[in-house]
From TrEMBL:
Transmembrane feature ranges: 6-24, 36-56, 62-79
Subcellular localization: Membrane
Topology in membrane: Multi-pass membrane protein
InterPro entries, per database record: PQ-loop_rpt (IPR006603), SemiSWEET (IPR047662)
Name of the molecule in the record: SemiSWEET family sugar transporter
Keywords: Membrane, Sugar transport, Transmembrane, Transmembrane helix, Transport
Database matches in Pfam families: PQ-loop (PF04193)
GO cellular component: membrane
Organism per entry: Dendronalium phyllosphericum CENA369
Highest rank taxon of the organism: Bacteria
Coiled coil ranges: none
Molecular-function GO term, any one: sugar transmembrane transporter activity
Length: 84
């Protein structure tokens, strides 16, 4: 693996795990009142588009990061709707 791929994977890992605390907190407290629905939906659309872009480029860091981020944020969206 070259340096740029490693750099991309490191950036992808850090930005992706940043959503883990929000997801876990929402799950534990069963409250998503402080999560903006509009922001969440907009972000999910953007992440999905990044994923499509990464697949098109066959860029592993973009594909991995956005796949996991999309799953985490879809869970947060599901929790937001469930705990209304």
């Amino acid at each position: 693996m070259d340096f740029l791929t490693i750099l991309g994977l490191a950036a992808a890992t850090i930005t992706t795990i940043s959503f883990l605390p929000q997801m876990l907190k929402t799950w534990r407290t069963k409250s998503a009142k402080d999560v903006s629905l509009i922001t969440l939906i907009t972000f999910i659309i953007g992440v999905f588009l990044w994923l499509v872009y990464g697949i098109y480029l066959q860029a592993l860091p973009i594909i991995l990061a956005n796949s996991v981020t999309l799953v985490f944020n879809c869970i947060i969206l599901w929790l937001k709707i469930r705990y209304r």
